[in-house]
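agent: user wants the full assembly modeled, not chains individually. Plan: 1) parse entity lines 2) check alphabet per entity 3) run joint structure prediction 4) return tokens. Steps 1-2 passed, two entities, 452 residues total. Proceeding.
--- entities ---
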Amino acid sequence: MPDESLLRITVFTVLVAAAATVVMLPIGVSLAWLLARRRFRAKALLDTLVTVPLVMPPVATGLILLRLLGARSPLGRALEMAGLEIVFTWKAVLLAMAVMGLPLVVRTVRAGLQQVPPRYEQIAETLGAGPLRVFFTITLPLASRSVVAGAILGFSRALGEFGATIMVAGSIPGRTRTLASAIYAYTETGRDAQAATLVAIAIVVAFAAVWLSNHIADRDSGLGPFDSRSA
Amino acid sequence: MPPILKLDFTLTQGAFVLDVHETIDASLIALFGPSGAGKTTMLDAIAGLRTPARGEIVVAGRALYSSAQRIDLPPRLRGIGYVPQDVVLFPHMNVRRNIMYGASRGSRVSVERALAILEIEALVDRPVASLSGGERQRVALARALASSPDLLLLDEPLVGVDAALRERILPYLSRVRDELAVPVVYVTHDAADLRRIAEWVLRVDAGSVRGRGTPEAVVSR
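--- prediction returned ---
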């Protein structure tokens, strides 16, 4: 297997999961802020839409993505005409990972934002700060731990993504095969040794991610406790 | 010269109604009354953190809010320095960054003046978590001053502060008024504080002003 070493699959999976996390974060933080701090009519709908991939079978989410982006959909045709091929490429892997990880980012960051007392933001406003400055200098730093935690959760979810990925990206050796889909493919074709090696790699990667997230959660954020006088 | 402060508005908040119709020309104004009377709500309305149902809020002739003229300036454009009761120093910044937060619209000089007047030059590199209660009060006051406000709002700055510290902080308030010429609205429920520094007192209860005048006149009644 010269072009499809286990190392290559591992590196591909970790890199695409990291890229998916980079995509998830700004979208997830924006959605979390909308849900935590704003009131608007479609809020319940948005909340539901963001959470649904967490509850639905990932394969179903994958099928929806495939129908949305496939060559027979208007969006798929438009993308194709723009020269953007998504389904059954690494971009589809990234998309599936991002869609499946996004709910975890939104929920984690939203909870973190809700912990930030609005009084801090109000006082920053009285000191002359506009909405963007308030967000980036007050709200986000005070919720930074939840952003890190959300990123790690989203990344972990992306690493293990299988159902949505297999539908929209397949498991094409050397192109879209991830740790999860490779374990499945090897087991199906009786290559148990390779599957077992990948399982061991998956355990190591998962262990590292969980350890890192616990480490960050336990670490003092440097903010000190929100004591009663300032909270 | 227009009056320092014109508060003429109605604000509802659930079942609570705050109704104020006052024109005040004093530079150290106290709001006096029991908790739940609406004093903090009044400060929030002046700062633009709560919107009245109707009426007018004018500081030194400049309308911050006017339902008739459809003016409702956002807090950042009101020029109000606000030290809320819970102080709310930004916990992720040290003292210097807290004080500098609003200083960009003011002058550099006023930051140093604020530090000097409040005698906190030695604290600037400390994290806020390491400050004592009285130090926090003074840093919050300096931060509000450094933004060069036209009016300073202080919500119970001496609550939970022991008598010795109170004696140290009270003179700073008079200095702010005298040396920086910033008018101060000061919330308290302590009659002794009033007699010490207030020029004009509004006695607030259950959402309306029940008395007004000099400290002696209002408190003895």
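agent: reporting back. Residues 6-218 of chain A form a domain with the MetI-like fold fold (CATH 1.10.3720.10). Chain A touches chain B at residues 117, 119-120, 122-130, 137-138, 141-142, 222-227, 229-231 (CB under 8 Å).
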